[in-house]
Amino acid sequence: MTADAAVVILAGGEGSRIGGAKPLQLLAGERLIDRALRMARGWSDVVAIVVRHTDQAGGVDVPILVDEDGVEGPLAGLIAAIGFAREIRRPFVLTIAADMPFLPRDLLQRLRIAIGESACAIARSGGHLHPVCGLWRVSALASVDPYLGTGKRSLKGFAEAIGFVAVEWPAKPSDAFFNINDTVDLDIAERLAAD
User: Fold this and answer.
1) What are the residues facing 43 on neighbouring strands?
2) Could you read off the pLDDT of 33-66 as tens digits, one per residue?
3) Among 11, 78, 107, 173, which residue has the fewest nearby CB atoms (within 10 Å)?
4) Which of 1, 18, 170 is nearest to 99 (CA)?
5) Is 150 helix (H, G, I), strand (E, B) or coil?
6) 40 and 116 in contact (C-beta within 8 Å)?
7) Using omega within 30 degrees of 0 as the cis cutoff, is the peptide bond preceding 23 cis?
């Protein structure tokens, strides 16, 4: 557990391909949001959730943040997460996705070691970046408006604009960054959770 980073769970996706309310879907008898909270609490004593609509949070007992108004996608959640970390005077915020139920236990530790002087450290597995799983310096908030001014809204693009380091995890035998987008993925996750 680290004392200089908050953890914020990005849970604002609509989940239309899974029947809606994705963070509240069950995996091995546990809601995805509760599973993410359990992981997050292992990394920090300060945990929050960012959603698009407050009903997506499912009555959890942590601060509930709302996506930055006027910004689409995960970048809106990141902006809210960084703002939250700044308010509580934490220099870093780790973002994770509610739909990634098998994240590695050493996620924060490895990102924290790797970040060095970079603005953020992003998880990568099998050569694929996972910008929703990143450790971000709160000082990156100053770069948001200039980035939005370019008309771009990509979380990966923002990481590239401010400067990031990638931290690689193996994708085999299973990918710790597997994410659930539809009912097929949920069935796969059930099998993985049973192993």
Assistant:
1) none
2) 999 999 999 999 999 999 888 777 778 889 999 8
3) 173
4) 18
5) coil
6) no
7) no
